[in-house]
Design brief:
alpha+beta, Cathepsin D, subunit A, domain 1, Rossmann fold, Dna Ligase, domain 1, 5-stranded antiparallel β-sheet, 23% helix
Length: 461
């Protein structure tokens, strides 16, 4: 039989499920319902499983200290406050902890910012073995607001249900469906947003993203799956989310740079990352000099905005290279000329980088006589063990583009790994099947680590 717990009219309590290890509460047996201070209250989730997310200032007078919370909604009811005002409030269930004892209670969410106590504990929340002594205060062990220091609160923070948007024009695409499935498996709400159907209100006071006639809600994270054909508009939408302070797995800057082959190779060169010798020129008078910078034939001639191996031509002789260059110039197309790495023998390595780690790698081999190993062009893939140098090159390349998730393609040359391309929207199907790893799940786990707002932040009034 458990011992009786005696509470005074004010006590230190804890709500561990919400990440609130210390909160000072008023114990009011005259009130039936308990209430917790909350602001930025926003419902999300399906009608069958509604959730609510909100933020709490646990320490009176400390509006810079913000604890983000989320919980399933169990009810929404009208509550009349002590001053006679009725308010429709969300009701959640959470664990109450007092001196090592815990039990579930129902709590309504309301803005108590002007109240001396961030929580009011009503009689409905009192267990049978709890007594209240109205003339006493702080009968239970004293807690401290020191627990809200950044390092401590991060370590103790519970997993919070996140609202995630996947920017994709292809709802049924393998990568998109896998991200949605894994996000929901982790208890998050994941929505697929058609990038081209987003439109933006751009102003200094309240920038917004709209979709289907409505303002989009606040998302904890956005996963951009921006196709090459809509790079300009897609990155504009990502920039708008960045302006709102949303965590974007890949930022607009990195996506834009990765799509422009010239810019991408200049970034690789700036960070001293190995790559095939590359040259670029605008004038037709510089064709021979351009090829001379790269070396002898065979050469690769590559359109600046080529994807999936399209617009990439192998010129096996100097004359063939001149013909291809003249043809591209006739189309007024921008292109690069690159050294052909013969020893790669139609194979390249795709490294999937999440954060600062290569989580999977596969070797892609060209199909038939094609020198391009892209899976979209009939290439095959299998898991491969990469070297330390290859791993370091892939991580360094992803960091150079400031990408949280990147597919880094490299060749195995005699002089070391040569990075061919950094892909900001890498497909998941090929590498998941080749490696047997749950890449989509690892992306969601990365978001869980990065998307949670810092416990302490400045709030502008």
């Amino acid at each position: 039989m458990s011992k009786t717990i005696a509470l005074g009219w004010e006590e230190w309590l804890a709500l561990p499920d919400l990440g609130l290890p210390a909160i000072k509460a008023k114990i009011d047996t005259g009130a039936r319902t308990s209430a917790l201070h909350a602001f930025d209250i926003e419902p999300f989730g399906s009608a069958a499983k509604p959730k609510v997310r909100f933020a709490v200032h646990p320490v009176p007078g400390r509006e810079d200290l913000v604890i983000p919370c989320s919980a399933p909604v169990i009810d929404r009811r009208e509550v009349t406050s002590s001053n006679g005002e009725a308010e429709l409030r969300y009701v959640i269930e959470t664990e109450l902890s007092v001196d090592g004892r815990s039990w579930p209670i129902e709590v309504t969410l309301t803005d108590r910012g002007n109240m001396a106590y961030r929580m009011l504990l009503g009689r409905q929340a009192l267990a049978e073995d709890v007594t209240v002594q109205p003339s006493e205060s702080f009968l239970q062990p004293e807690l401290s607001y020191d627990v809200y220091s950044s390092s401590r609160i991060k370590a103790a923070a519970p997993r919070r249900a996140l609202r995630i948007a996947v920017l994709s024009r292809e709802v049924g695409n393998y990568s998109t469906t896998r991200l949605v499935a894994e996000g929901e498996k982790h208890g998050h709400e994941v929505e697929v947003i058609d990038t081209l159907r987003c439109y933006m209100a751009i102003n200094a006071m309240a920038p917004e993203v709209h979709y289907d006639g409505k303002r989009l809600p606040r998302y904890d994270a956005v996963i951009p799956r921006i196709g090459a054909s809509i790079t300009n508009y897609g990155t504009a939408v990502v920039r708008q989310f960045e302006t709102l302070g949303t965590h974007c797995v890949n930022g607009s800057e990195g996506i834009t740079a990765s799509r422009d082959k010239l810019h991408a190779h200049q970034i690789l060169a700036r960070h001293r990352i190995g790559m095939p010798t590359t040259a670029f020129a605008a004038s037709p008078h510089d064709t021979d000099n351009l090829m001379g910078l790269v070396g002898t034939a065979p050469l690769i001639v590559k359109l600046l905005e080529s994807t999936q191996g399209k617009g990439v031509v192998l010129a096996e002789t100097k004359k063939a290279a001149q013909s291809v260059i003249d043809a591209f110039r006739g189309l007024k197309a921008s292109f690069l000329v690159q050294d052909f790495v013969k020893e790669a023998a139609g194979e390249d390595i795709r490294c999937l980088v999440i954060g600062s780690k290569v989580v999977a790698s596969m070797k892609r081999t060209a199909g038939g006589d094609d020198f391009r190993s892209n899976l979209h062009r009939g290439g095959t893939a299998k898991s491969v063990r990469i070297t330390k140098e290859e791993r370091e090159a892939a991580i360094k390349a992803a960091k150079a583009f400031k990408l949280g998730v990147a597919g880094v393609d490299l060749l195995r040359a005699e002089s070391g790994p040569k990075v061919l391309e950094v892909n900001s929207s890498p497909g998941l199907e090929g590498i998941e099947k080749a490696s047997g790893k749950n890449i989509a799940g690892l992306i969601i786990e990365g978001i869980e680590k990065r998307a949670l707002p810092r416990p302490v932040r400045a709030r502008k009034g």
